[in-house]
Write a structure and sequence with these properties.
Helices cover about 40% and strands about 20% of the residues. It is α+β, with helices and mostly antiparallel strands. It has a three-stranded antiparallel beta sheet with strand order 1-2-3. A hairpin with a 3-residue loop joins strand 1 and strand 2.
Length: about 140
């Protein structure tokens, strides 16, 4: 129930056995392993809004959650339709990468992509945590 900046700080301490006693280290490591994912309905709605896409199935195939973390979560999918740049043109470097990346075991198949979705309200929560840390310090 801690804010994201506190969780992130705890995660950083969890990898420092030179600074933290073993009993505390063990508890802090739980912050790295037990992060509840945001429900798919919420995370995928955020993705639709960010990418301005009504139907994710038109762009991504086999979209599924891979991991959740303190600041966001990661989905994996096949990129069925190239994404456009801000001005509506397809990035030529993106085109080359899409042609080179293929799904393992399938020649010419859609490339696999990782999609990182930030938790809702993260900027506000993290900023508040940093403000409180600054006031406390």
């Amino acid at each position: 129930n801690l804010g994201p900046a506190w969780v992130k700080g705890g995660q950083q301490l969890a990898i420092r056995p030179d600074l933290v006693p073993p009993v505390v280290l063990k508890e802090l490591q739980k912050l790295c392993d037990s992060v509840r994912p945001v429900p798919d309905e919420i995370a995928l709605q955020l993705l639709r809004e960010e990418l301005e896409i009504k139907d994710l199935a038109e762009v991504f195939g086999n979209l599924h959650l891979v991991a959740s973390a303190s600041l966001g979560q990661v989905y994996q999918a096949q990129l069925l339709k190239p994404l456009q740049t801000v001005d509506g043109r397809q990035n030529s470097k993106q085109q080359q990468q899409q042609q080179q990346q293929q799904q393992p075991g399938q020649k010419g198949g859609p490339p696999l992509v990782a999609i990182k979705v930030q938790r809702p309200g993260m900027r506000k929560s993290f900023s508040l945590d940093l403000f409180l840390l600054q006031q406390w310090g």
